[in-house]
Amino acid sequence: MFLLLFAYCSALYTGLGIALRQNDTQTHLNYPQIIESVFIIAGCVFSVVTLLGFASEVPDATSETRSMFREVYQHIVLENKSISLKNMLLLKTLEEVETFYLTALDILRVDKGLILSLFGTALSFCVLLMQLKRVDLESM
To answer: Which residues cross the membrane (predicted)?
Structure first.
């Protein structure tokens, strides 16, 4: 997932580079470059939004699957048991329930907030680099 985000950010950086490139020798707009940058940026944004949408559904789907398996397990296990044993088994199964999260090497929990902040940081870094490059070209 991180490799996909890196690839999308790299392509977005390329699109921004094409869109923000300003040559002093050109007095007219270069429409093919503008169209290319719009398509690159739109494709990257669409891909990142789609990836975030699917990644945000993983914990919900996992918890739903676990609850279904827990109900089936409780129904099968508790069929012919005494009430006290049923209560003990129910408490044990409820105790073992934990939420599933995508993690990065079990260090960071990957959720929508983390992914969006990483994407925003990469985007602002790209814009900052483009501005610094423009200042360097003007000073020459």
So the answer is: 37-58, 114-132
The H or E element that residue 62 is part of is: helix 31-77
Residues in the chain: 140
Asked if 15 and 37 touch (Cβ cutoff 8 Å), the reply is: yes
pLDDT tens for 60-92 read: 777 787 777 777 776 766 666 677 776 776 667
Neighbour tally for 19: CB within 10 Å = 16
- The verdict on pTM exceeding 0.90 is no
Local structure of residue 102 (DSSP, 8 states): E
CA distances from 128 to 26, 96, 131 (A): 23, 48, 5
Compute the distance between CA of residue 89 and CA of residue 93 in angstroms, rounded to an integer.
Answer: 6
Region 24-53: mean pLDDT is 75
* Euclidean distance between CA atoms 79 and 13, whole angstroms: 60
Please provide the distance, in angstroms rounded to a whole number, between the alpha carbons at the two ends of the chain: 41
